[in-house]
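User: I'm writing a tutorial on reading structure tokens. Could you give me a worked example: one chain, its sequence, then its tokens, then a sentence or two explaining what the tokens reveal?
Assistant: Sure. Here is the example chain.
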Amino acid sequence: MPTANRVLLCCLLSLGLSACTVHRAPSPGGEPPPPPVPSQPAPGTPSGTPSGPVTDTPPPAPTRMKTHSRYAPPPSGSSYWDNALGVYVLENTPGLYYRERVYYRWQEGWSYSESPNGPWHPTDVSGVPAGLGSHYGN
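And here are its predicted structure tokens:
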């Protein structure tokens, strides 16, 4: 590479990189600049409250809902969706749950079935929805 091209390349790089730095002019008398002054809250705004736009967080989903937007309710029986458990709870049958065409039952251990009347197949906590499994502490 010819020397003239190298010099030109160095000048262009130096000029480009110099734009990345910020220089503050020294204050008269050689004293350091004063610290920045914090902004004052607007009148009527309590101190400690941000004066900028406030973003609202969405309200938490209710724990009980009649149906869920993704999971269909069980084909028979009165039920409701429980967000904490992540399953439908069958109202007239204590300990019986439903999600995605599978019924779950707790009777001294977990079992599952395609019908609320059985046949029931034993499983462990890994075979049930996570919220339901943690509810029973297994």
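What the tokens reveal: The longest strand covers residues 102-106. The beta strands are 64-65, 79-82, 87-90, 96-99, 102-106, 110-113, 121-123.
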